Amino acid sequence: QAEPRVVLSARGLGKDFAGFTAVNNVDLDVEHARIHALIGPNGAGKTTVFNLLTKFLQPTRGQITLLGTDITQTKPDKVARMGLVRSFQISAVFPHLTVRENVKIALQRPSGLSTQFWLPLSALDRLNPRADELIDRLGLGHWRDHRAADLSYGRKRVLEIATTLALDPEVLLLDEPMAGMGQEDVAMVAAIIRDVAVERAVLMVEHNLSVVADICHHVTVLQRGEIIAQGDYAAVSADPRVRTAYMGT
Ligand code: ADP
Q: Which of 47, 49, 88, 227 maximizes ligand 1 atoms within 8 Å of its Cβ, making it the mutation to test the pocket?
């Protein structure tokens, strides 16, 4: 394992909503080739942290650095172009289009092929090889020509991840990627996230703690907007504050 490389970091991050402190004093380091989980009870501030990191919300306090650049004042579209992409934020899965068409549409956005969104699909044929490579990598090869609407729920989420990866992000933020899935789909998506993280950083909010234990290298636990524990799963799950606050034991 090479030296850990921090690609996204927050220092003293905080957000107040009309006098209510939703997030406070959050220090976070997300590393290349690692899967980092953000967990905590409902209302802990996980979504707000995601919105702050992607700059959908402007922080009240603190500083955010992406790939060595201070992005505290940067607009969200620029942050996305710099390599920080959130799963649902840019990926749009069009139900009536095929898996391959969806991926091609996602691919032409950063490729500079067009500044127009609605390029005719026929103009995107040159993207077939790249689309197919991504589709195969994510195990969707068999469904290449199926309409997105006909995919299982789990595979739709995988297609969503594929359209996000088309932007070639350095840091991928996933908001509850396993939500609502059966065990088989959870295992499929877990394997994909592992594969994705070989060459990128992943930060994910996830409620399924066995998945977190299984695939996440680092866990940050939030409670009432503040970090109460950080470390690997074994360490945070043994932490007495986490046990009372989160696990309820
Ligand atoms: P989580 O994602 O961990 O469930 P959130 O980040 O959604 O938590 O919310 C953290 C706290 O901030 C909650 O108490 C929530 O009610 C509050 N909050 C979130 N967004 C807003 C907002 N736009 N205005 C006021 N309060 C908010």
A: 47
- CA 44 to ligand 1: nearest atom: 3
Q: Which residue's CA lies nearest to atom 13 of ligand 1?
A: 43
Cα-to-chain-centroid distance, residue 104: 20
Whether ligand 1 lies within 6 angstroms of the CB of 153 is answered as: no
Which residues partner with 175 through β-bridges? Answer: 205
Q: Tokens 């068999």 appear where? A: 142
Question: What does the pLDDT look like over 165-209, one tens digit per residue?
Answer: 988 999 999 999 998 889 999 999 999 999 999 999 999 999 999
pLDDT digits (tens, 9 = 90+) for 80-110: 989 999 986 445 689 999 999 999 988 887 5
Atom of ligand 1 nearest to the CA of 45: 6
Q: Taking each helix axis as running N to C, give the angle between helix 128-137 and helix 99-111, from 0 to 180 degrees, rounded to the nearest 10.
A: 120
* DSSP symbols for 45-89: SHHHHHHHHTTSS--SEEEEEETTEE-TT--HHHHHHTTEEEHHH
Domain ranges (residues) in the chain: 1-83+170-249, 89-168
Beta carbons of 249 and 68 less than 8 angstroms apart: no
What is the interface pTM, i.e. ipTM, of the complex? 0.98
Q: Which amino acid is at 110?
A: P
Is the pLDDT at 112 greater than 60? The verdict is no
The architecture in CATH of the region 1-83+170-249 reads 3-Layer(aba) Sandwich (3.40)
